[in-house]
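Minutes, project check-in
Item: structure for the 167-residue chain
Input as provided by the requester:
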Amino acid sequence: MSTRMFQQRLAAFAVVVLSTASVVVADQPYLNLARQLAGRYVGVAGPGNNLRIVVQPGRPVQEEQRLTVTVQGKYNGSNVRFDGLLSLQPQGQTVRLIWSGRRSDCQVDIHPEGDGFEGVTLPGNCQTAFQNPTPGKWQFQTEPGSFRLRNVETGETLRFRKTRSLK
């Protein structure tokens, strides 16, 4: 086989593999969400929101994406620093987010919405996990380049903008 023919076949094989991979990823929302979340964020809105968040890919596990998360800075004048593990598990066309931290765990199922994802916690479900003094249900919403947390009852909203993507 000539070198040129080998290169053409190799290129054709690469196109097939890349096409297949993009179809597989498109059918697995948890992989899209993991890619969308990985990065560095700064707080851009919310009462006293001077937080910085780093979301980094963790050790891969079969049928699950793991991200390590570090939150630090000031919120309403108080120093904040905590970290934990965010597991993204496929649930058909939804994704189960499971936060594991030192204080407690938190779980929310989210679904694709527009260019991102959204879901709502159960009442009080994540309050202890995030050192949050405001009880109630919280909505988690992502879109490319940002995410927000909004208290469903009070409307209090924290917005974060991605300043750098991480692979």
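Outcome recorded: The chain has one domain: 3-165.
No further action items on this chain.
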